[in-house]
Amino acid sequence: MLVRHHIEITRLALGAEASPRALEAIVRANVGQDGLRYQLGHDHFHFDNNRLERSYAYIEEQRALAGSALARGDAPSAWQAFGRLTHAAQDFYAHTDYIPRWLSLFDAGTLPAPEEVDPVFSEILSHSGLRSGKLYYPLEALTFLPRVGKFFAPFFPADSHARMSLDDHDDAGRFDYAFHAAVKRTKIEFEKTTGTFSTKMLADFIDK
Prior knowledge:
Layout: H1 3-14, H2 20-32, H3 52-71, H4 75-95, H5 98-103, H6 122-125, H7 161-164, H8 174-194, H9 199-206
């Protein structure tokens, strides 16, 4: 997803949960995953190139880092780990075919509203055919150019990141489903992560 969407998703999901200081630290770590140095060789940060299992493992690694940081009284490191975790979790809906698969469960004329999307439909999450877009570098870098990149996308294979991704608004309205799924998943990840914390660790993490 584009940086502005990661920011909005994270603030919508966590704005009522954490202090402004904690939230901004989480947001900074989240969008930091889209830095130029992380665009090559870090597929697991973004659920790219079918590195699904590695991405799932990365989320759990960051969850564990957040817990260990809080255990030693280092809330800023915990916020950073959780920010990295949320970036990957949010990109899952933009970079895999989860959303098209979920929408295919309904008749085209009776699609639920984007706000009703189920972000953890077990039959899709466990489906062996679940895939994410492949990055056909170096040429696919053209699709990331501001304003003109979208015009190159149709020339790439159907399984490419350029064709599969829902990083921004699309004519079919699928991005709206990815956006709301990412908001819900961020809340789920917050509950799952904080559910393992002691009372003091939770207080330090939400910083209220």
